[in-house]
Task: inverse folding
């Protein structure tokens, strides 16, 4: 019942990949981990920098849920917490998932507007991706 | 007599006066080539008339050596029947034959011979050590000699040789003397035979009290008693204080029935020094089978006994050391077990049961555990003794007198190792606190008082000293509980406090019965260690329980709907199913109220999280929605929008889903047979409510896009949607616990719910029955999440 987390930079975005169930058991640890990621990224981020191309760290946070089979409401709460923290720091959060269930749940809770879902990492980290591009 | 001779003929002119002590090598590996007689093994004994060269008497073993002979018989015949040869199986010549030698009045101090032994396995040759002693000076035995054949210990080598020799002589091989095996022969002949410390006695069976009639000089050497001193007396003069009476009794019994017997007993020399004497007594019989004499073969085995004792002592101390190590280990294990067992449960009662079970029998024979009630707090003694009340006074609510007498403690768990005493312990534990005397309460107060030392070791120690069996009478009034304690016959008792955060949560009494050693200092230390851990575990369980009770109570009170909360035109049924895993409190809520203009408003929501924080946020959120909804006639979208703003302003940042549905009073539309109303609803991320038609048609109240849930973005624009609800149709609101499970995605769950709702609606139009039917179908097993359901029917 453990969730694993690893993170890296991609196309100027911070990508956090999760492996495991995102449920009530994983929530406490994950809350801490994601909070740290958001704060670190807020500190490292260089919005509007003139650095050429991929060197600019001007993206937001991508949470890769492709290897997360199950998300419950506690898990969604963790994602929402990250969203709110990122929002305060001025950058967006996107979700990568191809799970129909997750998309359904996010849509039902009206969350696709704040946590847009993308089918893959490339589209999630594309520079001009509109916020809800991957949601529909 | 000290047996250092070789196996050839030997004489020891004059016995030494001091026999060396028995070899400490006894029972150990002897050097190669050294054999040893086995004085404890049955020896063959003959009594020979030297003049007549006749064997007069023999014991049973000797009779077996020459089975077919009837006594008296000539010594030569006997020797021939026993097939006595030398150790190499060669015939003994006249001069070397021990019987010939003794017939020549030559004492034979020791000589190796071999005798044929017939058995089912065929004929074997057994090496023996023969000693032949003229019975000089024995009354009535003049001219007689004692001949004893002793088996040899560690004789495998000798036996092998003897048997090989036997085989050679029986295969008509060339004359053995032509093909000697010189080295072997030398080895055998040189093999020393240790017959150390052997002495011989003869007692006359014909005289009363079996007086000794002869002892050999070795006897004098070993015991210090001269021939003259010994003869004429029963050999019990060797006994003294410390001689085991059971042993002497066994010897007497054997002799009375004519059996041989070998025992080791503590004897005393003439100078009073003690020695361990191994005595083999064998009756010898005459031709008629009448016991004529008892021949004793005695060995000073003090060295061996001492060695055995030393070995036993070493074993005991090794065992003790190992036991100590094992005990230390098991104590650590026990401590770990206490923590594990008590942490595994948040049920205090269960934890206490486990604790007393763990104490018995590992620490004590019985254990009784009392805890302070959840609603009571122990005051320190002396801080509030009022109205003549002595001892600690307890409480938050006014205590009853018995409760005060019990110091707020309740015995809730006890266990006795012995099933037969459990009833007595039961009677004791049920009444012991109420039966405490003033002194008993004071004593218990010493244990329970929040001490300056954190764990109250000193207090507990002092109390345990008071709490001894003798002192118990003063601690308890005469009562069934005291009588029951007496039945337990405690040999030691101690009472230790279970503490956490400076507070006493309970006391544990441990006691031992007559069947085991009283509690030691180590036991007391262990008990205090365990009590400390148990105190922490109990405290955790209590905190958890209080938190849960608080949250659950809050939830219950919040979810209570007053009977007239709903306006006349709707009939409402609500259900709340708590999660089976009682460890969590849900944030689910519902509400029904009326707006000033008469509309009914139905709210359902779910605050994220399952803790007290979520329960508190739920309470605030519900209150906000209700307040905003009731003060005016805002539509659901306006209510939710303002709720979001107010949540942010109030610092409630727990995300929550909610759905608000407004049902204005119905009106009769022209051309419509049934009254109906136009629902207005807004949904903040909540699973879509259902509209269940009487015809079984089920629709979801959903828009293309659901609005964002509450608590995220206060500026979220919320939409209002309208749907028509006819009389007899049911509006069903629910939380995700009804439809979402680990093995059932939300979408599937909602699809299932639609089917279930349609079936239920086809059987009933009553909201109560419908809610029950839906829950029964959707939650066949206890749910892992809380579930709220609201069913509303337009009247």
Result:
């Amino acid at each position: 019942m453990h969730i694993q987390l690893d993170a890296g930079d991609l196309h100027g975005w911070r990508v956090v990949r999760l492996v495991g169930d995102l449920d009530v058991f994983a929530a406490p640890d994950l809350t801490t981990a994601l909070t740290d990621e958001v704060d670190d990224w807020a500190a490292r981020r260089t919005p509007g920098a003139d650095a050429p191309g991929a060197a600019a760290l001007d993206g937001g946070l991508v949470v890769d849920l492709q290897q997360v089979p199950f998300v419950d409401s506690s898990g969604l709460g963790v994602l929402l917490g990250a969203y709110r923290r990122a929002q305060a720091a001025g950058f967006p959060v996107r979700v990568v998932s191809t799970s129909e269930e997750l998309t359904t749940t996010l849509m039902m809770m009206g969350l696709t507007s704040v946590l847009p879902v993308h089918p893959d990492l490339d589209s999630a980290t594309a520079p001009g991706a509109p916020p809800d591009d991957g949601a529909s | 007599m000290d047996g250092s001779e070789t196996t050839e003929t030997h004489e020891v002119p004059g016995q030494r006066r001091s026999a060396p002590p028995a070899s400490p090598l006894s029972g150990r590996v002897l050097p190669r080539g050294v054999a040893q007689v086995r004085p404890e093994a049955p020896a063959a004994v003959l009594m020979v008339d030297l003049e007549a060269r006749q064997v007069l008497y023999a014991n049973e073993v000797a009779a077996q050596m020459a089975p077919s002979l009837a006594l008296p018989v000539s010594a030569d015949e006997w020797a021939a029947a026993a097939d006595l040869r030398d150790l190499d199986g060669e015939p003994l010549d006249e001069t070397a034959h021990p019987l010939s030698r003794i017939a020549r009045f030559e004492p034979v101090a020791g000589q190796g011979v071999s005798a044929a032994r017939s058995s089912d396995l065929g004929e074997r040759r057994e090496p023996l050590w023969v000693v032949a002693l003229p019975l000089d000076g024995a009354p009535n035995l003049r001219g007689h000699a004692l001949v004893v054949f002793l088996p040899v210990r560690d004789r495998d080598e000798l036996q092998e040789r003897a048997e090989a020799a036997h085989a050679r002589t029986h295969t008509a091989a060339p004359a053995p003397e032509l093909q000697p095996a010189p080295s072997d022969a030398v080895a055998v002949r040189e093999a020393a035979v240790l017959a150390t410390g052997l002495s011989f006695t003869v007692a006359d069976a014909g005289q009363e009290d079996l007086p000794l009639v002869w002892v050999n000089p070795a006897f004098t050497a070993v015991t210090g008693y001269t021939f003259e001193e010994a003869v004429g007396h029963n050999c019990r003069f060797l006994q003294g204080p410390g001689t085991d009476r059971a042993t002497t009794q066994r010897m007497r019994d054997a002799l009375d029935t004519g059996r041989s017997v070998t025992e080791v007993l503590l004897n005393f020399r003439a100078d009073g020094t003690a020695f361990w004497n191994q005595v083999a007594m064998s009756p010898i019989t005459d031709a008629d089978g009448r016991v004529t004499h008892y021949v004793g073969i005695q060995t000073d085995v003090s060295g061996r006994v001492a060695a055995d004792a030393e070995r036993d002592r070493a074993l005991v101390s090794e065992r003790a050391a190992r036991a100590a190590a094992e005990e230390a280990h098991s104590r650590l294990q026990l401590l770990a077990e206490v923590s594990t067992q008590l942490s595994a449960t948040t049920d205090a009662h269960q934890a206490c049961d486990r604790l007393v079970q763990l104490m018995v029998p590992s620490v004590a024979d019985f254990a009784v555990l009392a805890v302070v009630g959840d609603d009571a707090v122990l005051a320190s003694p002396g801080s509030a003794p009022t109205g003549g009340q002595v001892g600690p006074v307890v409480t938050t609510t006014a205590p009853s007198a018995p409760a005060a007498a019990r110091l707020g403690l309740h015995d809730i768990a006890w266990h006795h190792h012995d099933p037969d005493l459990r009833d007595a312990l039961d009677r004791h534990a049920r009444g012991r606190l109420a039966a405490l005397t003033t002194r008993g309460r004071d004593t218990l107060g010493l244990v329970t008082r929040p001490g300056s030392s954190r764990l109250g070791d000193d207090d507990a120690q002092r109390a345990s000293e008071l709490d001894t069996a003798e002192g118990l009478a003063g601690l308890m009034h005469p009562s069934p509980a005291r009588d029951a304690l007496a039945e337990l016959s405690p040999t030691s008792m101690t009472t230790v406090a279970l503490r956490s955060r400076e507070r006493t949560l309970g006391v544990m009494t441990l006691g031992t019965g007559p069947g085991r050693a009283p509690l030691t200092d180590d036991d007391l230390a262990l008990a205090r260690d365990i009590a400390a851990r148990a105190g922490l575990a109990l405290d955790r369980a209590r905190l958890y329980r209080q938190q849960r009770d608080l949250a659950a109570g809050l939830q219950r009170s919040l979810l209570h709907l007053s009977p007239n909360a709903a306006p006349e035109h709707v009939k409402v049924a609500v259900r709340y199913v708590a999660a089976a895993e009682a460890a969590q409190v849900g944030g689910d809520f519902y509400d029904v109220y009326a707006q000033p203009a008469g509309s009914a408003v139905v709210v359902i929501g779910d605050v994220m999280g399952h803790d007290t924080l979520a329960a508190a946020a739920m309470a605030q959120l519900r209150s906000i929605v209700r307040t905003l909804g009731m003060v005016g006639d805002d539509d659901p979208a306006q209510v939710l929008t303002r709720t979001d703003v107010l949540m942010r302003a109030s610092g409630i940042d727990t995300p929550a889903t909610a759905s608000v549905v407004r049902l204005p009073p119905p009106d009769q539309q022209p051309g419509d047979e049934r009254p109906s109303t136009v629902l207005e609803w807004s949904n903040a991320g909540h699973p879509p409510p259902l509209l269940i038609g009487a015809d079984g048609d089920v629709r979801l109240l959903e828009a293309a896009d659901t609005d964002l849930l509450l608590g995220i973005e206060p500026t979220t624009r919320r939409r209002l949607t309208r749907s028509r609800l006819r009389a007899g149709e049911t509006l069903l609101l629910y939380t995700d616990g009804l439809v979402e499970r680990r093995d059932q995605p939300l979408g599937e769950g909602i699809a299932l719910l639609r089917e279930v709702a349609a079936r239920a609606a086809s059987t009933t139009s009553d909201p109560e029955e419908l809610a029950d039917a839906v829950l029964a179908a959707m939650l066949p097993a206890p749910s892992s999440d809380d579930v709220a359901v609201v069913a509303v029917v337009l009247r």
